[in-house]
Amino acid sequence: MLGHQPFDPKQSFAEQVDATLSSALAAVRAQGYGPEDVFAPIDVSGRTDEEVEIVRERVAAAGLVHAALVDERQPPRPGTVTRASLDPESNSVLTDARAARILGDS
User: Fold this and answer.
1) Burial classification of residue 105, based on how many CB atoms lie within 10 Å of its CB (0-12 exposed, 13-18 middle, 19 or more buried)
2) How far apart are CA 94 and CA 42, in angstroms?
C-alpha cells in the first residue's frame, strides 16, 4: 500500500500520477510480479474529465492491463466502474488509500 504521496506543489497532475505509478510498480516488481499481474482499482472520483483521461493514459503506458478506474459520479463516465461492482478486498484497498490521503492532507 502506498499511503499518502507527498508531491512538490509545482508538479503537474500528470507528474504526480507518474510518480505514484512508478512507486507502486517498484513495490510490485520487488515482490516478483509485473504490472500485468496486478489488479489495480484506482479511485478517480472527484477528478475532472481531463484528469481521468491523464490517469487512463498513464495507466495504459505503465502496462497495468487489469486496472479499474473507480468513479462514483452519476451518470458514470465511460470506461469507469462503481465501488459497488468491486469485490470486498478491492473496496478495502480503496478505503485505506482514501484514508491515507485524507490523513496526509491534514
Assistant:
1) exposed
2) 7
DSSP conformation class of 85: G
All three cell numbers of 48: 475532472
Amino acid at position 35, single letter: P
Q: What is the pLDDT of residues 7-25, one digit of tens each?
A: 778 899 999 999 989 988 9
* Beta-carbon contacts of residue 4 (< 8 Å; ≥ 6 apart): 100, 101, 103, 104, 105
Q: Where are the alpha helices (DSSP H) in 10-87?
A: 13-30, 49-61
| Whole-number pLDDT of residue 48 | 93
Q: Which three cell numbers stand for residue 68?
A: 479499474
Three-state DSSP class for residue 2: coil
Residue 48 DSSP symbol: -
3-state secondary structure of 67: strand
Cis bond upstream, residue 75 (ω within 30): yes
